[in-house]
Design brief:
mainly beta, 12 strands, 42% strand
């Protein structure tokens, strides 16, 4: 079996984490009422720490504050940030000090939904499943308790499984045999309603950014 290089494997793991974690960020109703996020999370802020195990090992830290989320992933020779805001998405390589930004395509879709449908939308987004005939989220196959919280377990077709808590993945298991990648990401610490400064959601000043929309 052909095994991917550490750099490629690390990038693939980060991509899979990004897909799984995408949509964690809540977005604002309007600029004058930033505290009213469009996702009805039961907290104002959260910090979640994950361990990554498998043929690539490392950590991911996710911070959520209202309408913004930042993911910091460190696996071997990869150190990357993924920042979500209502208007933009930012991907940053902290080793090469380069990155890119693009429009956030999910923001308008979530904002247009009734509030009681938004969690179902994010569950379907995270799992890649179509859901039930009435448009609701798919039914979980089981549950896990991780870092003191209970999450719903779903199978991801062709990849593995994922466990969601308030639409946020606490566990994911991914295997891509063609690339020699096998990885498990597990939440080990969850803190809610903690102090998180707004500066945590900004791109470092020494990073050269490219706007993919321009």
């Amino acid at each position: 079996m052909k095994t991917a290089s550490p750099k490629i494997a690390g990038a693939a793991i980060i991509l899979a984490l990004t897909i799984a974690l995408y949509g964690c960020a809540a977005s604002e109703q309007n600029q004058k009422q930033e505290e009213k996020a469009i996702i009805p999370y039961p907290f104002s802020t959260a910090k979640i720490e994950y361990n990554i195990t498998g043929n690539m090992e490392g950590t991911t830290t996710v911070k959520i504050k209202g309408d913004k989320t930042i993911h910091e992933t460190i696996v071997q020779d990869v150190h990357a940030l993924f920042i979500e805001t209502p208007g933009k998405l930012y991907q940053v390589d902290l080793i090469t000090k380069t990155g890119n930004s693009s429009a956030n395509p999910i923001y308008k879709q979530i904002e247009a939904l009734p509030e009681n449908q938004r969690m179902d939308f994010l569950t379907k987004l995270a799992t890649g499943l179509s859901g039930e005939e009435d448009g609701s989220a798919p039914q979980p196959t089981g549950q896990k308790t991780l870092a003191g919280e209970t999450c719903d377990l779903y199978e991801i077709q062709g990849l593995g499984e994922i466990c969601l808590w308030n639409s946020i993945p606490l566990y994911s298991s991914m295997e891509i045999p063609e690339a020699g990648i096998k990885s498990t990401t597990t939440a080990i610490s969850i803190q809610t309603n903690v102090d998180i400064p707004d500066s945590d959601f900004t791109v470092p000043e020494d990073v050269s950014m490219t706007d993919l929309d321009s």
